[in-house]
Write a structure and sequence with these properties.
Elements: E1 4-12, E2 14-15, E3 27-28, H1 32-50, E4 56-65, H2 73-86, E5 89-99, H3 106-114, E6 119-125, H4 129-135, H5 141-154, E7 159-165, H6 172-185, E8 189-194, H7 202-205, H8 215-231, E9 235-238, E10 241-243, H9 250-256, E11 261-264, E12 269-272, E13 275-279, H10 283-291, E14 300-305, H11 308-319, E15 326-327, H12 328-335, H13 339-352, E16 356-358, E17 362-365, H14 367-371, H15 373-380
Parallel strand pairs: 1-4, 1-11, 2-3, 4-5, 5-6, 6-7, 7-8
Antiparallel strand pairs: 8-10, 9-10, 12-13, 13-14, 15-17, 16-17
Helix pairs in contact: 1-2, 1-10, 3-5, 6-8
Length: 383
């Protein structure tokens, strides 16, 4: 019998400072006691669930945040050791840690490698120091480059660089310069995200006064990213993600392929055992709930059982994020009916507008379609 595989996500909600656009579950300036209690709860939470995953091999791990590398190195190592004790992580697993520039030393990077980390994701956002200040980032381009080379010299051969477009004061020229700078370093993976103004963030409150690029300029940036990165050997495989051949993010592909994963930490989500659920996005409530036994509504903010209908909706929504789109033979094998029997008419207006390619074997969004994917998906799916 083939072994079942599983991805694991660990959420570290601590940062040196909170960026004005960030709506992730993260806090700045937490004291030592808060961090210790949270990490103890995180390890306890992993152990509580581990028996349910005894039949699974963990082939991807992603530690994100927040900024995991603001933790003291031995503290992060202990968390990784606790993970290995609770789950069977295969030697070939993709093991990613997110890092912000200027939060790692050579010794820290070497410790991560010795602990099994083989992939890092570094947040550059922009190669323009003025744009970094506009975002509220506390690092410089020089800080980023130093961190990048620290990881390379420590033996990390798989690096993702996060970029952002739509930044206040950004131009198509400055974004192209950022793309050129990132490519010149030769990372294996590049993510390029459009700035989103999320309710509850300082940027959302300031939206009327921020000097944001207009919609046409932001669209041009998106197109520049696709064209330039593909010209330089990066395949566009997901709305915001580009990879050199063989370097697609295996962990994130679990999300987009509806494969099982477990998330631990405040705000972390899971898709496992026929359920989708997410933990409370509050550090104290999360810690209190785990310490009290980790069950029921105190820990979960949302929880829903998979039904055939909900799984089908999730599958279509997530697969259409991928440039490969939906393979119609696989869809029919999974759901017992042709894809077009439900979606052909719904997709026809978008197909006519050049946003969707729907042929005999597959359905996928075009470049223009990916840029407006939320509009398309909300129109064709049964939520």
């Amino acid at each position: 019998m083939e072994n079942k595989t599983l991805g694991i996500y660990l959420h570290i909600p601590f940062c040196l400072s909170k960026c004005g656009y960030c709506d992730f579950c993260s806090v700045a300036g937490s004291d030592k006691r808060t961090k210790n209690r949270y990490l103890s709860a995180l390890s306890k939470n992993m152990t509580q669930i581990s028996r349910q995953a005894e039949d699974y091999l963990v082939d991807s791990v992603f530690i994100g945040g927040g900024t995991p590398t603001v933790l003291p190195p031995q503290q992060l190592k202990k968390l990784i050791d606790d993970l290995y004790r609770a789950y069977f992580v295969v030697e070939s697993a993709e093991f990613t840690v997110e890092a912000n520039p200027a939060t790692v030393s050579k010794k820290y990077a070497e410790l991560l490698v010795a602990s099994g980390v083989n992939r890092v994701s570094i947040g550059l956002q922009s190669a323009d120091d003025g744009e970094l200040r506009a975002l509220g980032r506390i690092h410089s381009v020089k800080d980023f480059e130093e961190s990048y080379h620290i990881f390379r010299s420590a033996g990390i051969e798989n690096i993702n660089v996060d970029l952002m477009y739509g930044i206040p004061g950004q131009t198509t020229e400055s974004f192209l310069n950022t793309l050129k700078y990132a490519v010149s370093l030769g990372p294996e993976h590049i993510s390029a995200y459009g700035l989103q103004l999320e309710p509850g963030t300082p940027f959302f409150e300031q939206k009327d006064t921020l000097a944001l690029p207009d919609e046409d300029t932001e669209y041009s940036m998106y197109c520049y990213a696709e064209e330039y990165l593909q010209e330089n050997g990066y395949e566009h495989y997901e709305i915001s993600n580009y990879a050199k051949p063989g370097k697609r993010c295996r962990h994130n592909l679990k999300y987009w392929n509806c494969e099982p994963y477990l998330g631990f930490g405040a705000s972390a989500h899971s898709d496992f055992g026929g359920w989708r659920y997410g933990y409370v996005a509050d550090l104290k409530r999360y810690v209190d709930a785990v310490e009290a036994g980790g069950a029921g509504d105190r820990l979960c903010a949302e929880r829903a059982v998979h039904t055939p209908s909900s799984f089908e909706t999730d599958y279509v929504m997530l697969r259409l994020r991928l440039c490969d789109g939906i393979d119609k033979k696989i869809y029919e094998a999974l759901f017992g009916r042709p894809f077009d029997s439900k979606y052909a008419e719904r997709l026809r207006p978008f197909e006519a507008g050049g946003f969707v390619q729907n042929d005999e074997t597959s359905c996928r969004l075009t470049t223009d379609g990916m840029y407006v994917s939320n509009t398309i998906l909300s129109s064709i799916l049964d939520f």
